[in-house]
Structures are given as structure tokens and as C-alpha cells.
Amino acid sequence: MSLPKRIIKETERLVADPAPGITATPHDDNLRYFDVTIQGPDGSPFQNGVFRLELFLPEEYPMAPPKVRFLTKIYHPNIDKLGRICLDILKDKWSPALQIRTVLLSIQALLSAPNPDDPLATDVAKHYKENEKDAQRVSREWTEKYASA
Amino acid sequence: MKVKIKKWHAIAQWRWDTGHNDPDDDGEGDVCGICRVPFEGCCPTCKMPGEDCPLIWGECTHVFHMHCLLQWIGTASSKQQCPMDRRPWVTAERKVDANNPR
User: Fold this and answer.
1) Which of A53, A127, B7, B66 could form a disulfide with B56 if both were Cys (CB 3.0 to 4.6 A apart)?
2) Coiled-coil annotation: which residues (chain A) (predicted)?
3) What is the DSSP string of chain B?
4) What CATH number has the domain bearing residue B71?
């Protein structure tokens, strides 16, 4: 199957006019597979970290959401050990009006606003709920250890 | 003076009247929010723009290529909601902006 025009347009814009703190580069041999980096937002425990992710556009895209996963280890209540992300727009709140850019901006926003009430990593969520300061300290440590540029 | 017309070429241009013809729009033009191709183009499954690849209007005022919208509504994950505002999709009669009567 040839690449839909929409994916070509999105890719061109991602490369020519990237969102602040976000890069997305398609693989030469598979234009549906992107290497992504997201900078930890200022003021969050992930500040100064650069997180690597992989993003894959399934055949059904944009009728189905992109598949996105963290490759860099991260201590966050909505991201599990395997890098899987608990974010509604990647699941039941997907809409074809969303794009790669908006998905990545939402993930960046999730780093600023962890949601321990809708956890994926239950132990991290528990930590965040019981002692937020200490949990943030661990998040900062992991950022320094695994996500320094 | 007498002018004699020997030959003439007629040139016509068409576009869909989406009711969203804002003269101050961002210059990107009107594109389908699903496939991102201009309304005057056609959906990814069609070859020729025009009546065979029409637009569809929702009561919510959002416009799409009909084929794009029907494909989305046909998926279980759409929950029959408009891609723009997640309200239940209700197909409208073709809308024309009341401020710009033709």
C-alpha cells in the first residue's frame, strides 16, 4: 500500500515546523515508524530530560490511533515498565481529527500533569498519592539517570 | 468600430459551498478534518473530485468528505460521534451561511 497523502503532509510539517520540545523522524525503510523525542516540561520532575519514544501508524490510521511507547525509562503513574502510556486519546477518545503532532503534545502535557487516579503503573501511582514530594524526587532521579541528553 | 469575435474560450472554476467561506481564513483553505485534503480534492479512496465524492454536513456545522466521515462512523471506536466535537453525528441538510446568501 502506498502512503496516504495525509501521512506525507503530517511528516513534512513535523520535520519543517516541529512543535517546541518535540522531534519526530520517520524511518527511511518504514515511513509509518517514527523515532520521537520529547523534552521534559519545565517545572515538572522531568525537566532537563530528553525522552525517546517510538510511534507507529497502523494501516487503519487515521481511523485508528497511532501506537506510541516510551523507550526511555520513566517514573510516571500513567506510564508502565514497558513504556506503555495510559492516555484517553490513544484509546477510546481517539478521533481522526487528531494528528501525530497533537498526540505528542498531549503526551508532553501528561508529563506536566500526572494523573494518579487513572494509573497504569499502580506502584508509582500509589507512591504519588501517598507522598507526592518523595515520588517526584524519584521521578527526578530517574530523569537524571536515564533521560539526560 | 465593429468588433467581430472569431473565437473564444470559456473557463470555469467550481468549489463546494461549505458555508464556511471565511475571507480571513488562515490561507490553508478548507480541508477535510479527517484526510486533510482540500474539499475541492477528493477523499483518499476516490480518483476524481466532484459529485462522485461529495461533502457531508453535520447538524454541529462540521463538514467532511462524505466517504471519510462514513468510514469513521462505520468504525466501532467512533461511537457515531463527530470527529471535531464528539457530539453524536446527525447528518444535516446542506447548510448555507445565512449571512452570505447566494
Assistant:
1) B66
2) none
3) ------------------S---TTS-SS--B-TTT--BTTS--TT-SS-STTS-EEEBTTS-EEEHHHHHHHHTSGGGTTB-TTT-PBP-B-SPP--TTS--
4) 3.30.40.10
Question: pLDDT tens-digit profile of A36-55?
Answer: 999 999 999 999 999 999 99
Put simply, whether A97 touches B (Cβ < 8 Å) is yes
Question: Closest by alpha carbon to A148, among A51, A44, A20?
Answer: A51
In chain A, the domains with their CATH numbers are: 5-147 (3.10.110.10)
- Which of B36, B60, B82, B86 to probe the A interface (max A CBs under 10 A)? B36
Question: In which band, very low, low, confident or very high, does the pLDDT at B14 lie, cut at 50, 70 and 90?
Answer: confident
Kindly report the pTM of this predicted structure: 0.85
Among A61, A64, A71, residue whose Cα is nearest residue A32: A61
- ipTM of predicted complex: 0.80
A58 touching chain B per CB within 8 A? no
Candidate from A4, A60, A97 with C-beta closest to B83: A97
